[in-house]
Amino acid sequence: MATVEHAAPLPGGRLVIERLVYWYLLAALGYMAVSLLGGLLMALQLINHNPLSGIEFFSPARWRMIHTNAIAYGFIANSFLGMLHWAIPRLTMRPVLSVRLSYFIFAAWQVVVLGTAGGIVAGYAQGVEWGETPVWIDPLAQVGLLLVMINFLSPILKTKGPMYVSLWYFMAALPWTFLTYGMGNFLPEYALSGVGSGALTGLFIHDLVGLFVTPLGWGLMYYFVPILLKRPMWSHGLSLVGFWGLAFFYPLTGIHHFLYTPIPMFLQYGAIISTIAVEFVVTTVIINFIGTVWGTSGEVLRNLPLRWFYTGMVLYFVTCLQCAFQATLTFQQLIHFTDWVVAHAHLVMLGVFGFWILGIMTYLFPRLLGAEWYSERLGEYHYWLSAGGMIVMFLDLTFAGIFQGWSWASLQLWEHSIQLSIPFWVVRLFAGLAIIAGQIVFGWNLYKTWQRSRVGSSAMALAEAR
Amino acid sequence: MFESRSGVFLIAGVGFFSLAFLVNAVVPWMMYRNQPEQTVEETLNRNVLRQIQDLSDRYRESFAKHFGEPPPKPERTEPPEALAEKWGARDRFFRTACAEALRLGRTVYVGEGCWHCHSQFVRPVSNESRRWGPVAKSWEYNNELQRPVMFGTRRVGPDLSREGGRRGNDWHAVHFYHPRSTSPESVMPDYPWFFDSVGTSETTDEYGRRRTERGPIAPNKRGFAIITYMQWLGSQLDDYGHYDSVEAMPIQENRR
Predict the structure, then answer these.
(1) Which residues of chain A have pLDDT under 50?
(2) CB atoms near residue A49 (< 10 Å)
(3) CB under 8 Å to A190, separation ≥6 — which residues?
């Protein structure tokens, strides 16, 4: 692993609020743990081995919503906010608008996430998938996202001259996230009903992934990959194609979540065509990143953060290729409503963005703590347990989905589809346990590294005192 | 333009988002703007009202506690005016109770995450219309209880959009309490918090000590609400009766 280097401080104050980055990443890991436990509870329920059965506040169905919301708003959003605090000041050579505002946003966002969790556990979820945030928290989250946008846009707008690719993604993602959240959480609740609200919630589900998670994730990849490889992106032209293609096609795909519903058919066709177009755009981005790493003689395998990134990119290509097929009406007949979709969602949220985040954390924590990782071997265990568990879970649920679809289409009794799923769900449980074990290893490694950093810093303080 | 701040912010950030919003949200909204949204009261029909009366008869004490005592059924011998007035009062009572139960029922359906394992639309493919009934149509969703719509994206359990009338209220009560007692292969969680015990009784145990035992359980308000909501789903369809094949257990008078 590369030696630890600190950001060159600007004259007149520090550029990056490193403590805040550290807090964001720790908060993210905490919510990830909660989310994993929620997933575990639901996995146990599906094989009828729920140890907490019949306790209202541990209802697996409520914890399923905690599972998704803690990943989206707890793990991914906190990680990205922390990483933006690391990347944007370095890209612009300017600090964010206000340090005090940054700390306020951090606190407010934790209130939003914990409030969401509390509201869902108490049974007050909102009926929007990926937006189950109780309605009384939505305004706070909306204001928080506005402040996030102002805080980060300030340094970007103050710079002169051309912007680097990462900043295109960040600059577009900030208003997108704000607009998407408002659209999905307010309009179907207060303005629209029926089929129209169905189209809108489909748009929201997809915009949340496509306009919040995806651009921030890719922006960070365009930032960290060239730094780790110490070489520029392969093609600026492909970067342009990738960004503008994604920006145009991604938001148009929303309705593909609700094919064969009463939503007008021409809108469904439009969503399908856009989804296939996104796959072509994604291919250009992947080619660009493979071109960047080409000829580094296996750096991807030796460097652990890079390996996380490129594993995620390969899985991203798989996800999007899968998407181009599964969003067609032909595939939808069989796989809609099945575990195929669940496999797809896990692949994109954990296998792609989760892995990128874990890779960036692997890179950042030594720099934030000022100490090398306690054990590189534990880092390897973290990677292989997570990647292995993820791929097994993906294949397992994908096949489960196909069999479920066949069972339903052949008009078997409903119980038949449950019976055939049980073995797949058992495998899924163990794949999930492997992923959990990987994160426990990571947590332990982080704890020991933190201990080491304390020893290091107190020794340094002692030396300074003398 | 493609690499400038204003270009990225205005064209990609605001422009493309607005285009997608126009296509995926404004267009469907304009297409359905002439279909008025029904209130809960407007969606009430004979089928669901019959079910809530059945609930009030079946779980008399608990129902009275949560929704009030229903006006008594008139005797057949009463004069026609009194008969009409009494039936009218009963009808008004059940309509109010049913609307209240349905609003709460939807909240429970959302809050308990039912919609993550049960869908509410029938597709024209995969033999679904044979399994569930007629393919979903847009007018079915134009009511207050579909705000936002509960299409759902996963079916661990069956589709529920034509669930009304398929099974009796007693089946639903037992099933919500412990799904595997009626559906042995089910993986649905238990929902014992939809039920409370009604009253207490004094018993003497084997050592002669007097003990207070809690009475038999009956649905509580949330229980009535979610069962009513189940019976409402699809109850407004013309061919509702087509599904009414599972008879409920006859009501035993000594049951609470």
Answers:
(1) 1-5, 7-13
(2) 11
(3) none
Which residues span the domain enclosing A39? Answer: 16-161
Based on the number of CB atoms within 10 Å of its own CB, is A447 exposed (0-12), middle (13-18) or buried (19 or more)? exposed
Under an 8 A CB cutoff, do B24 and A254 touch? yes
Q: How many CB atoms within 10 Å of residue B249?
A: 12
pLDDT in tens, B74-108: 888 889 899 999 999 999 999 999 999 999 999 99
Partner-chain contact B127 A410, CB within 8 Å? yes
How close does chain A come to B232, measured CA to CA in Å? Answer: 16
By the CB < 8 Å criterion, does B208 face chain A?
no
Assess whether pLDDT exceeds 50 at residue B163.
Answer: yes
Report chain A's C-alpha Rg in angstroms.
22
DSSP letter at A159 equals -
Token pair for A424: 């797949």
How many structural domains comprise chain A? 1
For residue A37, is it within any domain? yes
Q: For the whole model, what pTM was predicted?
A: 0.93
Per residue in A42-65, pLDDT (tens digit) is: 999 999 999 999 999 999 999 999
B136 in a structural domain: yes
Size of interface A-B (CB pairs under 8 A): 230
User: Of residues A3 and B68, which shows the higher confidence score?
Assistant: B68
Q: Residues of A numbered 391-430 whose beta carbons fall under 8 angstroms of chain B's beta carbons: which are they?
A: 405, 408-411, 414-415, 418-419
Q: Does A229 fall in a domain?
A: no
